Amino acid sequence: MAKTDDVNPFERATSSYGHIRPGYPAAAVDTLIGACEASGLQTGSPVRIADIGAGTGKMTFALARREVDVVAVEPARAMRDQLTGVLHGHDVADNSAMNEGDPAADGTPWHQAHSGLIRVIDGTGERTTLPDRSVDGAVFAQSWHWVDAHEASAELARIVRPGGVVAAVFNQMDVRMPWVHRLTRIMRSGDVHRPDKPPRWDPPITPATLHTCRWMHVLLPEQVMELARTRSSYLRASTAMRKRMQRNLHWYLYEHLRYESDQWVSIPVVTMTWIARNGLN
After folding, report:
1. Domain 9-174+189-216+268-277 belongs to what topology?
2. Whole-angstrom distance, CA of residue 141 vs CA of residue 74
3. How far apart are CA 233 and CA 210, in angstroms?
4. What pLDDT shows up at residue 169?
5. Structure pTM?
6. CA 139 → CA 82, 111, 189, 223, distances in Å?
7. How far is the C-alpha of 137 from the C-alpha of 227, rounded, in Å?
8. Is pLDDT of 229 > 80?
């Protein structure tokens, strides 16, 4: 596919990314937190999780609502800006924790809206800049496939405390259904993660255990069109290719599947949560 340049595609993401991309089901978030709590926390200490490739903060905020302290690690400035925008005007570069009194998106003080603290930093899966053994867990929510597996594994072994959790979470359209499979092909959505293909973490990261849950992402046809515009394949594409992708999707939704503009499209989604541990002593 034609690309405009080699810039991180998510630097081109608009506000659509934050509001149209789905969040993560409670079952997936609870699985992650439960694994961290079962890994031997210090008494009275909050769970500390690094959300690596945090994007606009879908997983970050889900964790913070459950009294988890989160470090959101994100390399794309556009994504960090959207995340911190939810926290109302904080400077991304200061890397400071979001403490009591910080306003949430609706103007509610942070400590009333959510329970955990959030810190936003510029970093990658291979180089997070976090201190050694500083977190109880690290999660790649919709982001593991973007990193170098060997370098990221070494970084995880360094920043996650011994026995702590390493996780990857993927929201994926359920391509077992033919119409959904064709939809993903037209959207070039990259829904290719398989339950028999766990993330490749190097030792001392242990083999992963899979947890799955299924749910429906319900959108209007124009919202499906908007969702397609948040995919990396679209963000990377030339203007001509973007128009072609949108035309094809418009035909599929309105002419082939015969949806009306005010008719809901229920897209089946499977969320795969892979849980492993840092096997260092």
Report:
1. Rossmann fold (3.40.50)
2. 11
3. 27
4. 97
5. 0.81
6. 20, 24, 21, 28
7. 30
8. yes
